[in-house]
Amino acid sequence: MSAAQANATPDGKPGRRPERKADRTPVIEVRDLVKRFGKAVVHDHVNLDVYRDEVLSIVGGSGSGKTVLLRQIVGLERPTSGSIKVFGEDPTQLRPAQLQALRNRWGLQFQRGALFSALSVIDNIALPLRELRALPDNLICQAALLKLQLVGLSARDADKMPADLSGGMIKRVALARALALEPELLFLDEPTAGLDPMASDDYVALIRELRRELGLTVVMITHDLDTLVALSDRVAVLADHKLIAAAPIPDVVKVDHPFIREYFLGERAQRAMQALPPHGQPDAAPPGEA
Ligand SMILES: Nc1ncnc2c1ncn2[C@@H]1O[C@H](COP(=O)(O)OP(=O)(O)OP(=O)(O)O)[C@@H](O)[C@H]1O
Ligand SMILES: [Mg+2]
After folding, report:
1. 37 lines ligand 1 (CB under 6 A)
2. Does the C-beta of 72 come closer than 6 Å to ligand 1?
3. What is the CATH number of domain 3-105+183-273?
4. What's the whole-number average pLDDT of the chain?
5. Beta carbons of 186 and 218 less than 8 angstroms apart
6. Per-residue pLDDT tens for 123-139?
7. Measured in angstroms, how far is the CA atom of residue 288 from the centroid of ligand 2?
8. What was the pLDDT predicted at 286?
9. 217/270: higher pLDDT
């Protein structure tokens, strides 16, 4: 078994080699997860840890269960068996108020759309704060404006409606909303899908910057190799209903599996991976960005 495969089944026992992050506190612990819809198996005994301060990307073919895994982690879908803990708590075991308190510790940017079309930009961002019912509206608006600026938009965009935004702006507003409650953990499902290469690069730079400034742990699903290479500390690969690797990219590519060969070793992938620094630590700021 390779090092990458060994890391796919974290057991917390001796022999686990620390990789590059100093803080190996697990923020998410997926244990022996099985998920079936009727007879269709999506996850077959999946184990995965996500550590504080890392960017973990989940890849796998279409229908391999990336979104379903994320939905189970955030408690929108129940595992058939096995367990998932986030910040040490199992969302399925919590009472509604406790679950809400846990949910307030993460932000979620969904795969599809995500903005409420009838709400302005600022009202979309303010929504999670309004739902908290803890702050007066003038403070909520100020906080939402700050988040708007944090994602590189300006107060001039506040009153625009989602239909008037470019694809890149929609992603940024959705991100601002995901950050509204100042989460420690951020889930991104295909954050750069549908963006042109320049908008995609800008978004990647934004996530990199936010991560540095806010000290976020990020779990990201992406098909996009450039995004994957630019942001990931580790990559988790779903195939054949299993997690076949969870490791930094240079270790993942050594795992002998058809999906990995096709995804990481094709010509396009090789071009994308030229962006990896020699020591393979993609979150290191490129020259001039530090
Ligand atoms: N609520 C549901 N009921 C039945 N089957 C479902 C449900 N949700 C997802 N599935 C199935 O589970 C499998 C995994 O779906 P999932 O959306 O996680 O794939 P994915 O890896 O995110 O794919 P993509 O890359 O296309 O987004 C698919 O076969 C899907 O049809
Ligand atoms: Mg999906």
Report:
1. yes
2. no
3. 3.40.50.300
4. 86
5. yes
6. 999 999 998 878 889 99
7. 34
8. 41
9. 217
